């Protein structure tokens, strides 16, 4: 058993007859009244996101997890295929267990969390950023650049990302997988 002081991003807990992964959390100590922890939890079975508030010192049941590296092979409808990088066993996961499936490129190595009790995959942790090639981008319009002007662009995985006006087709860009935002252009 853990308490609210152990809550951190990525922690898997048992809550209301399901297993949830902590996506966001905030410890709040108001001037009046007891402290509490505001969390955003994502169900690892359904993908549903819920907000919950735990009072300070509340006991939570954490789930022991094990991490393994897997390489993304291909997608087939809503099913994604991965291969273990150490023993080459393959597994399939539903799209709902992925945080950013539209930024997943074939050959990308991800970390998959497994429940140690029944060895079932819980969720997929993407790398912090991915480098993808821009396949389509409208030409930038000069003159409206008083502030950070952006335009929509499509990358090789089919995801749409807002990029600065100077990005063109064929450029490689670094994308933050957590928020899906443009970070920088990558030179080769």
UniProtKB/TrEMBL annotation:
Residues 130-185 form the Elongation factor P C-terminal domain. CDD domains: S1_EF-P_repeat_1, S1_EF-P_repeat_2. The keyword Protein biosynthesis applies. SMART domains: EFP, Elong-fact-P_C. It is found in: Cytoplasm. Pfam families: EFP, EFP_N, Elong-fact-P_C. It comes from the Bacteria. Residues 67-122 form the Translation elongation factor P/YeiP central domain. Pathway: Protein biosynthesis; polypeptide chain elongation. Gene3D superfamilies: 2.30.30.30, Nucleic acid-binding proteins. GO terms for molecular function: translation elongation factor activity. GO terms for biological process: peptide biosynthetic process. Its main location: cytoplasm. Keywords: Cytoplasm, Elongation factor, Protein biosynthesis. One of its GO terms (cellular component) is cytosol. Involved in peptide bond synthesis. Stimulates efficient translation and peptide-bond synthesis on native or reconstituted 70S ribosomes in vitro. Probably functions indirectly by altering the affinity of the ribosome for aminoacyl-tRNA, thus increasing their reactivity as acceptors for peptidyl transferase. Belongs to the elongation factor P family. This is Elongation factor P. The gene is efp.
């Amino acid at each position: 058993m853990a308490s609210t002081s152990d809550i951190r991003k990525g922690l898997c807990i048992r809550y209301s007859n399901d297993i949830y992964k902590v996506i966001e959390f905030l410890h709040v100590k108001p001037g009046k009244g007891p402290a509490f922890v505001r969390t955003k939890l994502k169900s690892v079975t359904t993908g549903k996101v819920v907000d919950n508030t735990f009072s300070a010192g509340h006991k939570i049941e954490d789930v022991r997890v094990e991490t393994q590296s897997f390489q993304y092979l291909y997608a087939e409808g809503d099913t994604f295929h991965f291969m273990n990088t150490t023993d080459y066993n393959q597994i399939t996961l539903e799209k709902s267990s992925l945080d950013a499936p539209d930024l997943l490129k074939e050959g990308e190595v991800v970390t998959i969390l497994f429940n140690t009790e029944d060895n079932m995959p819980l969720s997929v942790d993407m790398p912090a950023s991915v480098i993808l090639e821009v396949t389509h981008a409208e030409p930038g319009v000069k003159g409206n650049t008083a502030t950070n002007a952006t335009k929509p662009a499509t990358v090789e995985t089919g995801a749409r990302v807002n990029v600065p006006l100077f990005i063109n087709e064929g450029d490689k860009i670094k994308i933050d997988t957590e928020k899906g935002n443009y970070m920088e252009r990558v030179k080769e």
